[in-house]
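User:
Care to share a sequence and structure tokens?

Assistant:
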Amino acid sequence: MAGTDRRKATAEGGGPAVILIDPQLGENIGAAARAMLNCGLVDLRLVRPRDGWPNEKARAAASGAVEVIERARLFDSTAAAIADLNRVYATTARPRDMIKPVVTPRRAAEEMREAVARGEAVGVLFGPERTGLVNDDIALADAILSVPLNPGFSSLNLAQAVLVVGYEWFQAGVEAPPRQLVTNATRPASKAELLNFFAHLERELDACGFLRNEEKRPSMVRNIRNLFQRAELTEQEIQTLHGIVKELSTMRARRGRPE
């Protein structure tokens, strides 16, 4: 989806480091960097990238996330890449024969936020595209991070995995904005305008016989009103509805005239 406004670009200090172990294609590294910056993350660490570093294909695939690419750091081992961190998560979709806590990205994000608030540095390990993390790397982590997906098809590509984790991190620090109505050149209808429309509509419904059942009329009127209340109509939409009702009543009147 488009929507980048570079005037609003922000990068979160203290966010988790994204550590790519043995990444294969520069394009995948670039896509992961793009996903990181989408979520305000800039600490990219690369352990033994197969095609070397720097990598022009990574820069091109980053689609503008140049800050992440330029700040990326290169390491010879996983141990070196995480040496300055206090808490590390290892991403994997496969069960492993080791006793470790297993958390979802949402839970991990909450824990990472709490750790960062205590002044701790955190990071997330991502394995190679084809094979994922090896057990020796997972053994260095404090917890396993597993994305709950379709058990019959739960594999993610590298950028997808980074985006899921980054998204949950970003959302954990964002207060949900209030629900808003985008009205462009108009505004939400006032209750007076809505009630005036109801009166117009019900008058015409009485005239055409739709509300002729006196016993059911009150509940029918309430149902109709509730329908339009849920629509959260704008002032312009109210005017349009008035026009529709007026035109329909005019057509009915014309048809009722003798030839």
